[in-house]
Structures are given as C-alpha cells and as structure tokens.
Amino acid sequence: MKRTLIRGGHFVDPENGMDGLFDIVIQDGIIAEVMASTSPEATPTGASKDGRTKSADEIVDAAGNLVVPGLIDMHTHLREPGYEYKETILTGCLAAAHGGFTAICCMPNTNPVNDNQSVTDFILKKARTAVGVRVYPVGAITRGLKGQSLAEYGEMKAAGVVALSDDGNPVTNGQLMRRAMEYAKGFELLVISHCEDLNLTAHGVMNEGAVATRLGLAGIPNASETVMVAREIALCELTGIPIHIAHVSTADSVHLIRDAKQRGLPVTAETAPHYFTLTEEAVLSYNTNAKVNPPLRTAADREAVRKGLADGTIDVIASDHAPHSTMEKEVEFDAAANGFVGLETSLPLSLSLVEMGYLSINDLITKMSVNPARILHRDTGGLCPGKPADVTVIDLAGEFTVDARSFRSKSRNTPFDGWKLKGKAVLTVVGGNIVFNEGLGVTNKR
Ligand code: DOR
Question: What percent of the chain has pLDDT over 90?
Fold first, then answer.
C-alpha cells in the first residue's frame, strides 16, 4: 500500500468547484483524501510533524505551483504502427508526460489503419510498456479511412477504442456519416469529425486570401470547413446523436456551433493552440512548419476561435500533435506534410489565453481535462476521493524558450521553435505514479 502526499500546492479542481491551498493524499493509484493544506509553504519543516506527512511513503512538495486534474489530449497522432520514423507510442507518451498530459487519444491514421481489433490491441499492448501515460485509441469510422464502408465498431469497442474518427480525411458521403453515427451510438462511441470538403480544398495548401495570392500558393477557403460543420450539425439534428467537431479553425464554424448549442443540440468541439495563437501570416516565409490542415486562418478567425473558447462554444483544447520527419517538411511548400507537434507546447500556449484574459485557470483546466473526460466518458478529469490519481502540477511563472531539439517527441516540426513562453508542467502523475518530474522535491520514506 503506497501513500503519496502532494502538499502545499494551489489546487484547482473545476469539476468539484475547489480552488485553494489543498493537500492530496494518493493511495494505491486512487485519490484518498483532499484536505486543507497544513501550509508547508509557511512552515516547510514544521509540516513534517503532522500526521498526514508521517503516514506518507512519498511526499511531493508542490508549494508555489498549481495542482490540477491530469490533462487529457483528445487529439494526438502517435504514428505507430507504420510511421515509427515520425513517432512511436513510447516517444509520443514521453512527449505527453513532458507536456503535462496524463492521457492522450491517438488517431487511427496509422499503417495499418486502426480500423480493427488487432491494431487496437497492438496499440494498447505497446502503451502498457510505455511511460504510463494512458493511451485511448480512436478507431476509424470507415475501413482504411477510405470513406466507403463502415469499420467494425463492436470489435474495436471491445478491444478498447474510446471514439471514432477518420481524422485526416472527411467522410464525404453524408449518408454513410449518418449510418456511422447511428451505428456508433449502439456502442456508445463518440464520432469525431474532420470537417473538410475536399472539392473546395482542391489543391489548396494554405488559407485562401491575400497572403496566399502574394505567395502564389493555392488557397483553401473557410467554406471548405464550414460546409462540413453545417452538415454534421444537420446530421446531429436529424439523428439526435452527439457529434464532436475536430480542430475548429474558422469564425463561421464557431458561429454554427454556437447556434447549434443554443438550440440544444449535442454538438461538442475542439480547437488546437495554433488556431488561437497564429494566423496565415506565419506562412509568409514559405515556412513549411506553418503548414497544417485545416490551415492557419486570418486574425478575424483567430479572434472568433478565442471568443468561442471564452464563451464555451468550443469545449476542448486539443494539441492535434502531428509529428512529421524533416524529410517531409524540408521540401517545397506544396509537397510538405501537414501538421505540427504539439504535446510539449500545448499547455504553455493555452496558458497565454489566461494571460490575455480570454480564460480563467478554471476554464482552461475545464477545457484540457474536465471536458475531454466528460465527452469521452472517462472517470478522470477531477480529483475528488475515489477518482484515479491523475494529476498535473504546473509552474505558472516559469519562463522558457521552446527548443524543438529538446523535445521528447521524435519529430521537430513546430512553428513555435525559439518562442519564449510562460508556464509549463513540472510534474505528471498517472494512477499515482510519477511519470515526469522537472524539479519538484520528492521525499521517499520507503
Ligand atoms: O495537419 C494535419 N495533420 N491535419 C490532419 O488532419 C492530419 C494530421 C496528420 O495526420 O498529420
């Protein structure tokens, strides 16, 4: 029976409405107690005299830091099986732990595609020997992500998938998407939609507009995303079945989702840090590390995404961690792969929304932990006694310069290399086990 005490931190648990100086006791991987701190900040040595400190096998001194429910990333690409040169389940989990994530959902666009039980089994088996971060596989909506026939949801659910998505590809056929939602409902699986009209995207490689014209690059109009968001909302209305919209990038998508929510439809949505941080101008130097799908948009879109987060229209911040090798990025813009690594920059970039006044810390943790857990029906996302002990400790004041070479991820494709950011995870605990610690004092009494 192992008892860990995390003491003296500023505890924020939006799910249980708690915000203040609290100590947590973890026993055998579960939150055993949450109680008013004995204020070790004030009396670090005196605190060792109290009973709770005496009975702990391991004491983590979190004074001066924020202690929150473990962050959950709803949208990660782990690349294994098939693209291990970009990322493996192990390196992806290391990056997740480093970024403060206790759980990550991995998208099915691997090779082979995760559209069957054996691939799901493989991912979960590998994940069991990697770091300890929880890996929640997302199964494909359609076989081979080809958009033609539905995958076997029952067998994937039994193997452990938590949701379904053809991420990277849209399900073009509306009738098939309707059937996917209906079939998924029977297995209580959420459908996550990559909203893109491929005919409107055509050969586009960045946002359509003045910057694309100046660069001589083919553009992707906002409508490419918007029309599919509208279709998914219509299907949600038709069937009454929940739908989750992935990586929202446009103002029109935000407006449609806001309206759908006001009408009471079970639509949820996520965006990624690059959509509320950058604009299409990041592409001006033909920087392929600013190439992503959906593309970076205008300042007006970025503002709408920020406001959508602020007013609750967008429920979740997800990294859309999409590792690619230099070989796939150091090529002509047209030929470069889409996507950024994000697990190790997601939290500090998101904290800038707090700094700018769009979100409170409470809101931020809701979008990075509570809501993902709720949407995916996980029993984490909160820290009341009886819950799994998934905890992230954040140093809000710590400033650092992003150095892609120091990433735990196997890939380096980030537009944020060299950026100065503030706030980062210093401790990640999954099921009571410390999977990452950067500088917090831990006393072991065993
Ligand atoms: O930029 C992207 N990269 N968007 C996607 O939808 C897929 C992802 C990937 O798999 O690289």
Answer: 93
